[in-house]
Design brief:
Elements lengths: L6 H6 L2 H34 L12 H28 L4 H70 L5 H91 L11 E6 L2 E11 L7 E9 L2 E5 L7 E4 L6 E5 L7 E5 L4 E5 L3 H22 L8 E4 L1 H5 L7 E2 L13 H6 L17 E3 L4 E3 L1 H10 L6 E3 L7 H9 L2 H8 L17 H13 L22 H4 L5 H17 L3 H9 L7 E2 L5 E2 H8 L2 H9 L14 H7 L3 H9 L14 H7 L3 H17 L4 H21 L8 H4 L3
Antiparallel strand pairs: 1-2, 1-9, 2-3, 2-8, 3-4, 4-5, 6-7, 7-8, 9-10, 11-12, 11-13, 14-15
Helix pairs in contact: 2-3, 2-4, 2-5, 3-4, 4-5, 9-12, 10-17, 11-15, 14-15, 14-16, 16-17, 18-19, 18-20, 19-21, 19-22, 20-21, 21-22
InterPro entries: ACAP1/2/3-like (IPR045258), AH/BAR_dom_sf (IPR027267), Ankyrin_rpt (IPR002110), Ankyrin_rpt-contain_sf (IPR036770), ARFGAP/RecO (IPR037278), ArfGAP_dom (IPR001164), ArfGAP_dom_sf (IPR038508), BAR_dom (IPR004148)
GO molecular function: GTPase activator activity; zinc ion binding
Subcellular location: Target cell membrane
Length: 737
């Protein structure tokens, strides 16, 4: 290739050489600006995956790289949100399966895009940046030397021309200096021209190579995407066909439901069923409370198995009003202002109930009397009759215009009102000891959610309450939340985690015939060492908090700290969903119950279950050692969050666990301040009573007040436990059973 500057002109330092030199210098400056723009916009591509109009914003290059990372992070967050949608449909495999395939495809696309961005950065930005730094900057450095020697050369030429003939020594000195400077100038000029020529030559293949590499990266990206969607095409077609079926089913259901308005004309306020000597009646009644206000509350009442129970509209749990109706008598009430009332009188108390109409009142009175008589008869006879008749309100009230519908009554349709130990032992697997399979299960570990025999329970007690909290199924009192914890887990669920990989080389499996040493070795290996827990990540797929999209959490699981972080995040997600089984699994795998998630405002596990509003999950993490006064990044404790949610039940639970209400968040608010701002009278009262109780503990009369405070908290807790969806109950309602 011909040199871009004439070397002869260069040695003569002619005006033509200077003109050519200036042109090439300007050309190099333009090249640098253009390459800086290309490098900048390649980084913009990393951020936005598209080119924008030219702007001289090279200084924002690094900021754009960070924005690019944020773009990829946002895309990852979007995929995570789709995964959360799939978790929502966890009970519907026909929806979960295509959603998981979509998630996998989106994840693969994101990987390909990340690879394209990395290759673009290497091929364009990094390559051209190296060319600018190594070549263009080197030419500029040489230019500075050239300019300096050129100025020195001009200066010595002027001095040489001004030296007088009469000053012989000075003339000789100037001549020697001129000769040396001229030689240095010519060598520097040749070096400078050589570098310019090489740069002008190299720029062509350097730039072309960079953009050819870019196009190759594009080709790879689109080829990978094409292959991916060829594999995904059958899923698209299959899912589209399934969508059409779902739409047709929805339309059919809509038409079916539109025709159900005819049911409005039927009166099914009260339903009476008989099975042999047993009577079962259910329906809404107004119940007069026993407090000073004598308020009336509407409840769903059921008479079954000689018991009278009721429940609130939005609750599952029942409250037993009368344990044994054989000890009661029923009579109508006509001496009070309210109509359609009747009274149930037991040896210790009486209950006033009100029906919606005179006919309904008569049905209730007659049916209750018949049920009481049937209970007496049933106690002396074991006859079991299978014929069942169902009579509605209208059919019982009249003889001429009624129609009796006969149907078979399935025992599973009749709700059972059992004591806690009966409910717990009725669960599959709970009829035997969780550790030795002994059938004599009279004890339980409430933080593990398992039932135990007396021998194994003794060993559990020796482990300490930080490992296992043992309670008698028959002798101890059981509150609703602890019972629900037990009913949420059970031996079968817990052993899935603690006996996932049993290795009897570590400890021999205990049986009901094992001696104490053998039991102790087995139980310590199982719960203290957790030797049989499967801590591999790819096995964590049996909780609701996981799906096939575990890739975001399972990448680079090469160290113990990575596994620990994964299980902590697994526990955090389970806590946010109030997933007790998921929490149990994460704890079995070694998650920290008091772990702080720095990626989410430093919230703790307790903060997450409080935000879920679930009392049972909150009780479960407390049973497993959650500390209630830990703060997040905004200095909020769980009590702050429960108060912000106006959740009276959670506030009670935290106060019972010793929550410190004097802690201030970063807005200098304590729990009382938040409750006052929310105008929540119940929580304000509770917090002030708790504070007063603390102050009176040091008083000589403090003991007499502490019992009163504990009773108030227990009343609020029981009310909230019976109605977990209610976040705010008034004190008047709290006094109503």
């Amino acid at each position: 290739m011909k040199a871009v500057i004439d070397l002869n002109e260069c040695l003569r330092d002619s005006p033509k050489f200077r003109q050519e030199l200036n042109q090439n210098e300007d050309n190099i400056d333009i090249l640098e600006v253009k390459l800086e723009k290309v490098r900048f916009y390649s980084l913009l591509f990393l951020s936005f995956n598209r080119l924008l109009s030219y702007k001289k914003v090279i200084k924002l290059c690094n900021a754009m790289v960070e924005t690019g990372k944020a773009f990829i992070k946002s895309k990852s967050s979007f995929i995570n949100s789709v995964w959360e949608v799939s978790v929502y449909f966890n009970e519907d495999p026909s929806i979960v399966s295509p959603l998981n395939k979509i998630i996998n495809t989106l994840t693969e696309l994101m990987k390909y895009q990340q690879m394209l961005l990395d290759q673009t950065h290497r091929a364009v930005s990094r390559s051209l940046d190296t060319f600018i730094k190594n070549d263009i900057n080197k030419v500029k450095e040489t230019k500075r030397h050239f300019d300096k020697i050129s100025d020195d050369y001009d200066t010595i030429l002027v001095r040489n021309s001004q030296t007088f003939r009469s000053k012989q020594n000075e003339c000789e000195e100037v001549h020697n200096l001129l000769t040396a400077t001229r030689s240095c100038f010519k060598h520097t000029t040749l070096d400078y021209v050589s570098q310019i020529c090489c740069l002008q030559s190299r720029k062509r293949h350097e730039v072309l190579h960079s953009f050819l590499s870019l196009m190759q990266a594009y080709g790879t990206y689109f080829h990978q995407g094409s292959d991916l969607f060829q594999d995904f095409d059958p899923v698209i077609k299959e899912t589209a066909n399934y969508l059409n079926k779902l739409r047709d089913d929805s339309i059919s259901l809509q038409k079916q439901l539109d025709g159900n308005h005819s049911l409005v004309t039927k009166d099914t306020t009260v339903t009476v069923l008989t099975k042999g000597n047993q009577v079962w009646i259910e329906g809404y009644l107004f119940k007069r409370t026993s407090n000073a206000f004598k308020t009336w509350n509407r409840r769903w009442f059921i008479v079954k198995d000689s018991q009278l129970v009721y429940q609130k509209k939005n609750e599952i749990d029942f409250t037993i009003m009368e344990e044994d109706l054989r000890l009661c008598r029923v009579k109508p009430l006509t001496d009070i202002e309210r109509r359609f009332c009747f009274e149930i009188i037991s040896p210790s108390k009486s209950h006033v109930l009100q029906a919606d109409s005179e006919e309904a009142c008569r049905i209730w009175v007659n049916t209750l009397k018949h049920g009481i008589d049937a209970a007496y008869n049933d106690s002396s006879s074991n006859e079991n009759q299978e014929a069942v008749s169902i009579e509605s309100l209208d059919s019982i009230g009249t003889n001429a215009s009624c129609a009796t519908a006969n149907q078979e009554l399935n025992d599973s349709a009749i709700p059972k009102f059992q004591r806690p130990h009966l409910q717990i032992l009725a669960m599959t697997g709970n009829e035997v000891c969780c550790d030795c399979r002994s059938p004599e299960t009279k004890w339980a570990s409430i933080n593990l959610g398992i039932t135990l025999c007396i021998e194994c329970s003794g060993i559990h007690r020796s482990l300490g309450v930080h490992i296992s909290k043992v309670r008698s199924l028959f002798l101890d009192d059981w509150d609703n939340d602890t019972t629900k914890v037990m009913l949420s887990l059970g031996n079968a669920v817990v052993n899935q985690f603690y006996e996932a990989n049993v290795n009897e080389n570590i400890a021999k499996r205990a049986t009901h015939d094992s001696d104490r040493t053998e039991r102790e070795n087995w139980i310590k290996a199982k719960y203290v060492l957790k030797a049989f827990v499967d801590r591999s990540v790819n096995k964590c797929n049996n909780i609701k908090t996981n799906s096939s999209n575990e890739e975001d959490l399972t990448n680079n699981m090469e160290s113990e700290s990575d596994l620990k972080l994964y299980f902590n995040k697994m526990l955090y997600v389970a806590a946010s969903n109030a997933d007790i089984v998921g929490i149990c699994e994460a704890l079995a795998k070694g998650a920290d119950i008091n772990w702080s998630n720095e990626e989410d405002e430093g919230k703790r596990i307790l903060h997450q279950v409080v935000l879920s509003g679930n009392l049972v999950a909150t009780e479960f993490v407390f049973l497993n050692g959650a500390k209630c006064n830990l703060q997040d990044s905004f200095n909020r404790t769980a009590l702050h969050l429960a108060t912000e949610l106006s959740n009276t039940g959670l506030v009670c639970a935290l106060l019972k666990r010793g929550a410190d209400q004097s802690i201030l968040d970063n807005q200098n608010r304590d729990a009382v301040t938040i409750a006052v701002n929310n105008a929540n009278a119940d929580i304000v009262t509770l917090l002030r009573l708790a504070k007063l109780n603390e102050e009176m503990k040091n008083d000589e009369y403090g003991n007499s007040h502490e019992g009163m405070f504990n009773e108030i908290v227990r009343d609020f807790s029981n009310l909230s436990s019976m109605n977990p969806k209610s976040k705010h109950e008034s004190i008047i309602k709290a006094n109503s059973p």
